Amino acid sequence: ALSKCHKDDWQDWQSEFNRTFPLFTNHLLVLYPNITQKELLVCQLVKLDMANVDLASILCLTPSGSTKFKARVASKISKSDTEKAKLENILDTL
Fold first, then answer.
1. Which of 83, 52, 94 is nearest to 70 (CA)?
2. Deepest in the core among 15, 44, 52, 61, taking most CB within 10 A?
3. Is 41 helix (H, G, I), strand (E, B) or coil?
């Protein structure tokens, strides 16, 4: 569970992100209701063109770990079973 501080930070982040991309988060959650909070955050950071090294730092992962995490999210939300799309490309359509 998130502490009060983390919940406040999360809500602040969501407000700021949604001001920049007003439809992105809702659209993502409608299309993929089973997405986790961490997966949502990764999608939002990728949408902001966050560098992989910075993404790794935010997620407390190694750069290769963040690359693998992005690949798992991409396969979870990819519409195609045969095509292995990059997360950036999938999110560009939203």
1. 52
2. 44
3. helix
Q: Cβ neighbours of residue 16 under 8 Å, at least 6 residues apart?
A: none
| Chain segment 60-82, per-residue pLDDT in tens | 899 999 999 999 999 888 866 55
Residue with tokens 């949408």: 47
Residue 8 exposure: Cα atoms within 13 Å on the Cβ side: 3
3-state helix, strand, coil in the chain (%, to 5): 70, 0, 30
End-to-end CA distance of the chain: 29
As to burial, measured by CB atoms within 10 angstroms (0-12 exposed, 13-18 middle, 19+ buried), residue 78 is middle
